[in-house]
Amino acid sequence: MERDFWQRFSKNELALAGCVIVVCLFFVSLLAPWISPYDPTEIHLDNILAAPSADHWLGTDQLGRDVLSRMIWGSQISLKVGFVSTGIAIFIGTLLGAVAGYYGRMVDTVIMRFVDIMLCFPTFFLILAVIAVLEPSIWNIMVIIGITGWMGITRLVRADFISLKERDFVQAARAIGASDFRIIFIHILPNAMASILVAATLGIAGAILTESALSFLGIGVQPPTPSWGNILTAGKDNIDIAWWLSLFPGLAILVTVLGYNMLGEGIRDTLDPRLRG
Amino acid sequence: MIPLLFGITIICFSVMHLAPGSPTDLQTQMNPRASAELRERLRAMYDLDKPLHVQYALWVRKLAVLDLGTSFSPDRRNVSDKILERLPVTVSLNVLSMILILSIAIPIGVLSAVHQGSLFDKLTGVFVFIGFAVPTFWLALLLMILFGVNLDWLPISGLRSLNYEYMPPLAAFADLIKHLILPVTLAAFGGLAGLSRYMRSNMLEVIRQDYIVTARAKGLSERAVIYKHALRNALLPVITLLGLSVPGLIGGSVIFETIFGIPGMGQLFYMSVMSRDYPVVMGILVIGAVLTLLGNLLADISYALADPRIRIS
C-alpha cells in the first residue's frame, strides 16, 4: 500500500510540482539568516522607496529596508502560521469528528449543532472580532485562525468514522475487548488519515491566505516583524510610486498557496483517484 | 432555527467577554482625570457590574428589539442606526458581485463540461486552480495600480467623485458605475473559481444520467439536450451553493470596503475593530450571522420551489 502510494505519487506531476515548491519554501525560511542579503529590520532613511536595482533586487520600502530580505524572513511567518493554525484546526476537528461519528446519538447531535452554529458566522468576521478583543500578535493570530477553521474537518472525519465503525475490523477489535479509546485512535483513525492529510494540506494554504489578509489590514503580524501581508500594506500606502512593494509579496503568497494546493490535490488524486473533482 | 439563533448569541457574547479587563478601560486609561468613581459609573452604565448571566439576559432582551446599545465612539450614536445605514451598500455590492459571478461562472462551467478535455476546458481548469490561490486583496492592489494609477481610467476609492452633487443625473450615474467596477469585479473574483468548478462537475454528473440518454435517443438536438434538459438539472445544486457562499461574501466585504474606501458595513466593522468599539463589533457579528442564516433559509426555500421532487416529499 505504502510503496504503491509513492509510486503513484512520483508519477503525479501536479503533486511533484507542489512538493518542489513547498520544499523550496521550507529551505528558504530555514536558511533565512544566511541567504537574506540584508538585515530585514535595518532602516536606511537615505534610501527609501528605491526601485529594484542590482543592490536591492526587489527594491526597498518606505523605511529603506530591503524588500527581498523582508520577504525571505516573512516566509518564516507564513510557514509558522500555516502549520500551527492548521495543527490546531486538525486537532479540534479530528477529535470532535471522531467522537461524533463513533458515538452517534446525543453526542453527535450536540457536536454537529455546534458546527452548524459556528458555520453561521462569516469566518473573517469572527476572526476580526476576536482580534478586536485580544491583542493582534502572531500567536493570537495562529490560535484564532485555528479555532475558527476546524468545522470542515469535523464533518469530514465524522463521515469517515460513521462508515468505518461498521466495518469488520472494528467489530473484531470490539470482540477482543478493546476500549473505545483504543478503537477510535488505534483502529479507526489511521484509516481516516488520508482525508485528514488532504484537508490539512489545503488548510495550510487557506491559513496562509487568511494571515496575509489580516496582516495586510494591519491586524495581523505587527511591524517591524516582516510578513508578506504587511509589506503589501506599505504597497497600498505607496500605490502611486512603488509598484514593487505591491507586486512581489503577493506573488510570493500566490506561489506558496498554489504549491500547497497542488500538493493537496496531488495527494488526493494519488490516494483516491475517484475523488478527483 | 431557534437553537441556532441562541447559539449565535452565546458565541457573540462569549467572544466579547474574552477581553482581559473591562472595555471601559480604553476610555478611562487615556484620561488621567478619570477617577475610580467615574470608572464605576461607566461600568454600571454598560451593565458591566452585574454577573455574566444577567448581562447576557439583558443583552439578548435588547437584541430582540434590535437595540444594540450605543457606540463607544465619540459620536455616541445608536449601534443599530450606524449599522443599518451602511447595510444597503454592502448588500447591494454583494448582490451585484453575485450576479457577476453567476453570469460568468455558469457559462464557463457548462462549456467546459460539454467540451470536456478540450483546450477551453484545460485553460479554464488552470485559471480556476490559480484563482483559488490568488489573494484577492493583492489582485485589487495590482488592478488599482494598472487602471487607477498608470492608465488613470478608473477611480480607486469611494463610491462617488467629489463633485458628484454638481453632476447631471446621467453623468452622476456613470460616475457611480465607474466607482463600482473594480470593487464588484474583485469581490466576484473570489467566488468565480469555486462556482465554475462546481458547475462543471454538476454538469458532468447530469450528462451521464439516463434521462439525458433518453432525450438524445428521442432525437432532440444537442442544443435542446444540453440547455433544456441538462442545464436546468445542473443548476439546482447551485442554489444551495449560493446560500452557502453568503458568509464568504459578507466576510470578504471587510477587505474590499477597506481597500476601496467604500462606506459599507465591512468598513464600519474594520474601523470598529481598530478602535475597539465593542458594541458595534458585537452588533455586526450578530447581524452577519443572522444574514448567513437567512441566506441558507432562502436557499432552502428556493430549492424547494425550483425542484418539484423536494416539494412533493
Describe this structure in words.
The complex is a heterodimer of chains A (about 280) and B (about 325). Chain A has about 280 residues and is mainly alpha-helical. In chain A, about 75% of the residues lie in helices and about 0% in strands. Chain A has helices spanning about 1-10, 15-30, 30-35, 65-105, 105-120, 125-135, 140-145, 150-165, 170-175, 180-215, 230-235, 245-270. Chain B contains 14 helices and no strands. In chain B, helix 1 (about 1-15) packs antiparallel against helix 13 (about 280-305) and helix 5 (about 80-115) runs antiparallel to helix 10. The two termini of chain B are about 20 Å apart. The model of chain B has no long low-confidence stretch (mean pLDDT about 80).
Main sheet summary of chain A: none
What form of chain A results from the Cα inertia axes? elongated
Strand content of chain A: under 5%
Instruction: Name the beta content range of chain B.
Output: under 5%
The assembly state of the depicted protein chains is heterodimer
H and E string of chain B: HHHHHHHHHHHHHH
* Average predicted local confidence, pLDDT of chain A: 87
Count of helical stretches of chain B: 14
Stretches with pLDDT under 50, minimum 5 residues of chain A: none
What form of chain B results from the Cα inertia axes?
globular
Summed up, the helix count of chain A is 12
| Largest sheet data of chain B | none
Helix content percent band of chain A? over 70%
Strand tally of chain B, please?
0
Q: Structural class, from secondary structure content of chain A?
A: mainly alpha
Q: Mean pLDDT across all residues of chain B, rounded?
A: 81
The chain pair forming the largest interface, with residue counts per chain, is:
A-B, 45 and 52 residues
Rg of chain A, rounded, reads 22 Å
Low-confidence stretches of chain B: none
